[in-house]
Amino acid sequence: MALTTRFAPSPTGRLHLGHAFSAIWAHDAVRAASGRFLLRIEDIDGTRSRPEHVAGILEDLAWLGLDWDEVSFQSRRLADYAAALDRLGELLYPCFCTRADIAREIAASLAAPHGEAPAYPGTCRRLSPAARAARLGEPHALRLDMAAAVARVGPLFWEDEFAGTVAATPAHQGDVILARKDAPASYHLAATLDDAAQGVTHVIRGADLFAATHVHRLLQALLGLPTPLYCHHPLLTDAAGRRLAKRDGAPALADRRSAGDDGRALADALRAQIGLAKSGRAPILPP
Questions:
Q1: Cross-strand pairs, 6
Q2: Euclidean distance between CA atoms 108 and 100, whole angstroms
Q3: Residue 211: which of 188, 227, 180 has the closest Cα?
Q4: Sheet holding 177-179, edge to edge
Q5: Choosing a second label site near 109 at 20 to 30 A (CA), which of 80, 179, 225, 262?
């Protein structure tokens, strides 16, 4: 099978240099091996995804000199996500909690002697079947009963370019959401299914998603999906060591282009930082 990677942005804003760093890493890895580079638009967040941001992603990547073999859209795979949720069946339960509900219960847990708050305190997992049935008309998410899921599959591992052989410990993340109240699938479910369906052999993404891979490895085992090799690369940061993020107003690639920067020269500067990261040094924002 040909080496296949993907870059999978959400069209909720413009790409910044951190996105470019990851996209170039994935792109160059497969082009050096005559493999396939896929562009996947993760557009199932109907409240924030915008067509103009999709166009912007394509413009930004082309400006950097990147090309791709296929473009896909998660919004066209909703039936596949629904089928996977059906297969998980009794491992899922409806969650009616709001963020405020969860925050209150976690606060109460922390107030108890030696209390340790889980990622989700399991409020709706403890509902009786009758109580659940009575509330199914209310907005709800679907959560994975993590303890039951982990017990079903046993010990799991994955291989990572930087971390080596990693023992999966998804239980630390609690009963994660697999279908949101406002979207038909969570990132965990959609990304795992898409990687398998598209034949992705190498997942190259930032170290900020390392923890998510524990859950993805569990879902692969539950659904009988292949496990790709992973590369959770160091994050590109500014000179002060701060990671780049949309929510923090990271400079957009479109701004660099409007300022007259050369996209291919910028890509080469980012490639130099990738080289530093591979040698164990921290990659920083190029001027």
A1: 38
A2: 12
A3: 188
A4: 92-95, 141-144, 177-179
A5: 179
Query: Is the CB of residue 208 less than 8 Å from the CB of residue 242?
Result: no
- 199 close to 4: Cβ distance less than 8 angstroms: yes
Confidence of residue 117 (pLDDT cuts 50, 70, 90): very low
pLDDT per residue as tens digits for the range 1-40 = 689 999 999 998 899 999 999 999 999 999 999 999 999 9
SS3 content of the chain, % helix, strand, coil (to 5): 45, 15, 35
Helix axes 210-223, 146-153, angle to 10 degrees: 60
CA 57 to mean position of chain CA atoms:
17
Most confident of 49-58, 115-124, 195-204: 195-204
Of the candidates 241, 234, 218, 211, the residue with the CA atom closest to the CA atom of residue 280: 234
The whole-model pTM stands at 0.91
Is 106 a residue whose pLDDT tops 70? no
H-type helices in 156-262, by residue range? 187-197, 210-223, 253-258
Euclidean distance between CA atoms 48 and 74, whole angstroms: 14
What is the DSSP secondary structure assignment for residue 19, as one 8-state letter?
H
Residues serving a catalytic function are 246
Read off the pLDDT of each residue in 74-91 and give the average, rounded to a whole number.
Answer: 96
Distance CA 222, CA 149 (A): 8
Q: What pLDDT is recorded for position 103?
A: 76
Q: At a CB cut-off of 8 Å and minimum separation 6, what does 287 contact? A: 269
pLDDT above 90: residue 267 = yes
Alpha-carbon gap, residue 73 to 53, rounded angstroms: 13
Report, in angstroms and rounded to the nearest whole number, the Rg of the chain calculated over CA atoms: 20
Sign of CA dihedral 280, 281, 285, 287: negative
